[in-house]
Each structure stands twice: as C-alpha cells, then as structure tokens.
User: Fold these one by one.
Assistant:
Number 1:
Amino acid sequence: MSTGAAILLASLLGYWMSSTFSQAFMHEWGWRVPFVVGAVLGVVVVWLRRTMDESTEFTDKVEGTEPVKSPLLTTLRDHPRAVAQILGFIAMLTLVYYTLTNALKAYASRPLAEGGTIGASESDTFLALSIGLVVFVAAQYPFGLLADRIGRRNQILGCAVVFAVITVPLSRLVTDDLASLILVFVVSLGLFASATSVTPAVLSDLLPVNLRGVGIGSWYNIAIALFGGTAPFILTALTDAGHTTLFFWYIVAMCVIGSIVMLTVPDERRGTALHRRAAQ
C-alpha cells in the first residue's frame, strides 16, 4: 500500500502539473517540483527509520549471536535455492510493476513528433494511471485476506498465469483514448495487487531471519536493477526499432518463468511459514 500510495501521489502531482502549466514551464523548471516533494518525504523517512523498533522475532533471534560474516556470500553458498527463487520471482514482479507504473505511461504519452506511436496526452495518461493506482492500493488488503485462504503461492501463481495470457491483448488497448487507458491501468494494476499484497510475506519466508535483511534486500534490488530498472529503456528501444510488441512478449516470457519459480515455493497459509523459518 505504501509504494502504491507513493506512486499515486507522484501521478496525481504529474496530472495536476501537466494539466495546469505549459510544457515550456515543465521543461524549464516544473520538473524539479516532484524532486523537492520527494526530498521532504525523504527526511520524514529517515526520522521514522531512526525511531522504529526491530520486530520481536528479529531481536529474539539475534540476541547474543555474532553478526554473520559476508552475509551476501553466505546466502549464495548456504541458500542458493532461495537466491534463485528471489531472483526469478522478483524479476517477473518488478518487470511488470515498473512497466505499469513507469514505462507504459511514458510509452503512451511520447509525442508522435518524437518517435512515439500512441501520442496520448500527458494529463490523460497521468489521470488513467492515478485511477488504476487507487484500485491497486485499495485491493491490497482484500487480496491479502484471500491469500490467507487459498495460499500465497497459489495467488501469485494465478496472477502470473493470467498476466501471461492477457498482456499482449491488453497492450493493444493502449491508445490515445482516455477510456481505453483507464481500462488498461485499472485491469492490470487491480490484478497485479493480488501478487504485491503477499510479496513481503513470501520473500520473508525464503531465508532465515538472521539473513533476511541483506539476503532479500541485495538480491531483490539486483533483480529490480536488471529487470525493472531497464524496462523503460527496453520499451523505448524496441519502439524506436518498430518492434514494440516484442516488449510485451518479453513480459509474457518472464511471467512464464515466474510461474515456474513459484511452483518451487512452499504453499503456505497464514502465519505458519514465518514461525518455521524463525526457528531455523
């Protein structure tokens, strides 16, 4: 919910600025405004992190123990299966997430005169993305509740399979029409909430508690850099080359890989997995 709310705030800010100020103003000075807002929120985050307590599970586990030497290498040596699962799972998740919240908006609103193929207005794409993000944030808790009943793995697996089926057809609805853009963002982000609602629990279950911080944090961000971070560049490059559809087939391929990875993850219900891992 927090990451979705953050992107929603950015999208609403983009919608307000793109529909209020001239393009010349945005290029010359206006683009700095979101960075100022982010800097202020960054100070708030630093204050929050400095005043937060660690979880009871973590403090009970590490009390009286020595820090793990070379924790990143330790995860790779002692838990290679978990590392592979994190990379495969997050590669799929982050590619879809960055496409929906970043690359797709830029792709749809890129001017035709600058090589774009859709030519939708920036204000329309920001508005459609914002509506989709409202659905995304609101759906987190209901999907979390559903996962307690059907299992986290099953829910993410279902999401990956459905995305593999609908990604290419849904991409054809990305046009300069506002209603079509809203449909694309609402359907895709609403469905994607089924995976993100349980991602923290799934990731936390893959490694023992004394390695979760560096293990999940490092491999998670490596996967983000390689797949999520490159999504806008790959989409732009393929669009310039006249092969935009290949990008959406790329997403389909990663969803297939992610589905295979999820089949190797234990099918846990509410609460059981975290307690078992904490004891290891």
Number 2:
Amino acid sequence: METFTGTILVVDDDPDIQEVLRDRLEFVGYQVLVGSSGKEGLELLQKHSPQIVLLDIEMPDINGLEVLREIRKRGDDVPVVMITAYSTIERAVQAMKEGAYDFIPKPFEPDHISLIVQKAMERQRLKRDVEILSEEVGERYHLIVGKSAKMNQAVESAKKAAGSKSTVLLLGESGTGKEIFARAIHNWSERKSEAFIAINCVGLSKELLESELFGHEKGAFTGAHQLKKGKIELAHGGTVFLDEVGDISPEVQTKLLRFLQEREFERVGGTKPIRVDVRIIAATNRDLERAVKEGRFREDLYYRLNVIPIILPPLRERKEDIHPLARFFLQRFSKEAKKNFTEIAKEAEEKLLAYDWPGNVRELANEMDRAVVLGQGSRVTLQDLSARIVSAGRGTRSERLSYREAMDTSRRMLIIRALAEAEGNRAAAARALGLQRTYLSKLIKSLRIT
C-alpha cells in the first residue's frame, strides 16, 4: 500500500468522526492533529501550520464557515476540506465559493477521504514547487539589476527587445550574465510559456554543432541510428539562445544565415525544408566586427544577428553594483551552507571595490561562495578573501597590508591548501607542511580557519 507524509488538522466536535479520520489518515502515513472546536482548530492551525485542514461545518462555538473565513482573513491559503451532512451541502457549496478546497459528505468512505486528501497534498506540493521556481527565477533576474546607469540602460533595452520578434545580440565579456539576460528577455516576451533552449557553441565540432542545432535524419552519418530533432526544431514557438556564436564554423554560419533569412532549415542528411517559429538570441565575448574584417565571420550573418545589439558592461565599469551584488551572493550562499553571515567588514568591502574583477559577476559569486565556506561567524573579513583580492589596490602606502596581515594571509592560504589536499586530515596536512600537529591546530584556531 502506498503511504504519504504530511500533517493534517481535523476539526470536528464529534469524537467518533475524529477517531475514524485519525485512524484512516494515520494508517496511510499522515500525522494527524485533532481539534474539538473552531477556536481550538484555529489555535492548532497557527501553532503547527498543517498542510491540510478537514473542517466540520456544524460546530457549537464557531461554525465551519466562520472558521474558514477567519483562516482566509489571516492570509493563510491552506487547503480546507469541509465535512458536511447531506442537510448542509448547500452551506458546503457556499464554503467552496469562499475558498474551501472541497467537501466530504457524511457518511464518508475511507478511500474517498484518502483520495481527496492526496489530491489536496499534491496541490500544495505543486504550489510550493512553483513558489520555489519563482524565487529562483527572481534571484537570477536580481543579478541583472543594479544601480549603475550602464546596467539600467541594458535592462531597459532588453525589456524593449522582449516585446519584438527581432534577433538580439548580447555583447560583453565572459561572466557578465549574458545567459541570464537571454532568459529574462524570453520571460518578458509573449513566448515565456514556450521552450527556452540554450546552446553553447564553444568546443563543439562543426558536425556536432550542426546536428545539435538542426538535427539529423536516420543514417545521415555513421552512428545516426535514428532521427534526431535539433534544438531549433524542439524550441518551436519559443527561444533559442546561441552562446558564443562568434566561435561557430563557416559551414554552420552559412546554414544559420539561411535559417535567419528564410525561417526554415533541413536536418543533416535531409532534403525536406522544415519551417519553425523561433526567436534567436545570440551572445559573444568576441569582437565580431573585427572577425568580419579578418574574414572569420560572415558579414551578412553579422548583420542578421546584430538587429538589436545590447552591450553588457563589465563589473569594473559599474563599481556601484559590486557591494549590492556581493551582499546578495553572501545571503544566498550563507543560506545554502546553513551559516549566519550577515555582513561584510568595511576593509573587505574596500578590497572588493578596488579589485578589477576580470571574471565579472561570475568571479564575484565564486569569491563570496568561497568566503562563506572557509569563513566563520557573521562577517566576511579580509582573512576570508582570496589573496588576489586582498592585494588589490596596494598602489598607495596607506592601502598596503601590514607585515603581520600579509604573513597571516599567506599562512592561511598555505594551511587551507594543505588541508584541502589532505581532505581535512590535520595530521596529514601537518606532515605536508613540516609542522607538529598541535602547532597546526593552534594556527588553525588563531587564523580562524574552519
């Protein structure tokens, strides 16, 4: 027999009904709370936050309809299943209009109860999954919003582009968030309910990339044992994101140009034109104009891609976004690691600001992830940052680390590396460093190494 998990609150003044519902629901795996009155039910609901409420309509102190109204008044959207006699079905229907999930008429069958509760649980799980997904999407979009004028200009251009069917070309260094921008454009567009498919053009051979994009017929080449639809075909009605489009071969450039011109293509080894409705968003960190002049990129394809160009500024050109982004990543990684980091020390923030971030937002995210993993307490300090960050901006005497600070930073990095290579074994790390284990333990404690 299939069993389920979750907490259910039963609110009914009839002890026999309480017993029947408790026995049945506990038998299939649920945890059951029981309230004998509307007032007790509201108290249990507030204290335990069950996933479902089974609520009798007829109760002496507060009837079920009033309890339901109070639940909704509090802003709680927990599914409420009304328990009703045949004489009060009209009131159960009224309860449905006021936000009840369903109702169970008395006398009820145990299997019917299990089915209704199971469906209500599935509804709650689906709702939770949607909320989690929405939160994740919201977090991703948070990364493209900043205080800088350049980034805000790029966001505004992306929003305007989303309302059109035109091809978008995202230009910017590696790590500036081109795929996040592409997904944002897709989700701001009328295509948001359709597929978004990303393809990284780097590292794929001409044959493999052509097959990934356009698919192939059975027997088109050795190993093609069955028909395969390409990503462009699979994304019909949606969006295809071509990352690092500047790296594709001349042969694939030709086929991509034809698709952008005609909106149709042929699978590898095929002869039948296939027409699809797909929005193309391309991205590159290369200088395509220079590639065109040098003959490495087709000029006509460049103009087909460059309909709406959006330039994503590097992080060093939007310094005002560094601190908000760093705090955002700190909060995210601290939550994931179940730690309590809440702030970044002023001297650490100054170093983050002084560093040029050649890896852009991706590098900043990695740095905050590392600081959370290796640090402790509630503040990120200089000792939690990488040596390359700490050494940033040492141009003036006042910005230089003291001898002790520099030595502590170097010792910390050496010990962390030794511990990592020894998989956390302090004795092995001590041997590798030529130290006594007790002395290494003292250093670990004094340098605040977790």
